[in-house]
Amino acid sequence: MTFTINVPRDKVAKVPSMGMQYTMDVPLAGPGPYQVRAAVRDQPSGELGSAYAFLNIPDINRQKLSLSSLVLSVPPGTADTPGARASWNEFQAGTTVEFGCEAFGLKPPGTPNLDLEVRLYRGGEPVVKIPPTAAHFMNRDGRLFLAGTLAIPRDLAAGNYAMEIVTYDRIAAPKKQAAEQWADLTVVALLGDDRR
Question: Is the pTM for the entire model greater than 0.70?
């Protein structure tokens, strides 16, 4: 496929540093694990770029706790940080990151009774842990969204990390007790900090 992208003249200079995001709907055969790959070639220069991601699509028709993909952001009103792009999951050390996802398969009735644990990994080892606490939910038109925050330590080295959230359903039967979700996260060093 070939795409022609029109960029307003006043934003052209920002493209090399901020990048561009493109959205495409991809039909899937059903729930389960998937790997999504994308490759892009710039026709004028011939340069190539590629990326991939692993997805685990929950079966929302089963009465089993599962979570949608994590969405990471900064609190409303947070000033832009040089060198960090929140829309690309890039955050400066010391930033408070908000996360959210939709929860499926919660056992009725009543208010969900879930605990939430958050971990940040680098090189396969957890470097930040938030012990299990009561999960916070928002109900939007009958859909339940789990929400929380992660404070990135100011002394955390810049680099690529994996963020994991685990929820434990205290009402459901043991085989339906837990669900997890992951997101990639990049920590950008504070200005003047050269640690990696």
Answer: yes
Q: Is residue 2 part of a domain?
A: no
Q: Looking at the domain assignment, is residue 24 inside a domain?
A: no
Segments forming the whole domain that contains residue 179: 59-188
Which pLDDT band, with edges at 50, 70 and 90, does 111 fall under? low
Name the β-bridge partners of 184: 162
Residue owning tokens 């999960």: 135
Distance, C-alpha 103 to centroid of its chain = 15
Among candidate residues 94, 69, 71, 63, the one with its CA nearest the CA of residue 81: 94
Over 90: is that where the pLDDT of 56 sits? no
Is the residue at 176 inside a domain?
yes
Instruction: Return the closest-CA partner of residue 102 out of 133, 58, 61, 62.
Output: 58
Given the structure tokens 């022609």, which residue do they identify?
4
Residue at token pair 């950008």: 188
- Whole-angstrom CA distances from 129 to 40, 57, 132 are 37, 26, 9
* Total number of domains in the chain: 1
Q: What is the CATH number of the domain that holds 168?
A: 2.60.40.10
Neighbouring C-beta atoms of residue 40, cutoff 10 Å: 12
